[in-house]
Amino acid sequence: MGAIVADLIQAVEAADSKGAMVVAVNHLAATRDVAAIPTLITVLGYNNPGAAVAAVNGLAALGSAAVPALLEQIDGYNYGARAWAIRAVALIGDPRALPVLLDTAKGDFALSVRRAAARGLGNIVWSLLPPDQAATGQQEVLAVLTTATQDPEWVVRYAAVAGLHSLATTLVDSAQQTPLILACLQQTLQQDATPVVQARARLALDALMG
Questions:
Q1: What global pTM score does this model have?
Q2: Cα separation of 164 and 158, whole Å?
Q3: Domain-by-domain residue ranges, the chain?
Q4: C-alpha dihedral over 158, 40, 42, 96, to 10 degrees?
Q5: Residue 85 and residue 41 in contact, taking contact as beta carbons nearer than 8 Å
Q6: Which tens digit of pLDDT belongs to each residue from 165-178?
């Protein structure tokens, strides 16, 4: 660990107000140094949304290097910290987070966390998996996102549509799954009661069919 990162970690630990904490975490996150990962993860458990956002962005910028530590800690978190951690892994798109994102998109009680998970399922970098594992994972994602287009909350439905759009561009078995995605998007366009969700479905259809 370099001296600068060590000093910035100490600044986070010594912060004596919420504002000072946000500033300190932003400075630490900006280093994009893997040595910052444990401290950034710890910040997720603080009752400080501004600092948590900065920590999530810092962890996302570090990418796959942050995923093992996030997944190792995720089940032991209090709910608030777990929700922030899910946002982080959703932004990163590492397939090791797939089980957590699938479970969260299916059943988390917080709409913002379901939304983040749905978007995260669309962000998975499938090229990191062997083709057979990617194909299986994509089947699971397709099933969960299709269900999520019926979520009671429009923000989750919107995220599910965006996730399906992204998924459609990375399919291993496109011949079988693309028609299912298009059919789901068509149904959303025709039946969803929220104009912005309809518009997102139309955008996806235009892009995929154009």
A1: 0.89
A2: 10
A3: 1-92, 128-210
A4: 60
A5: yes
A6: 999 999 988 888 99
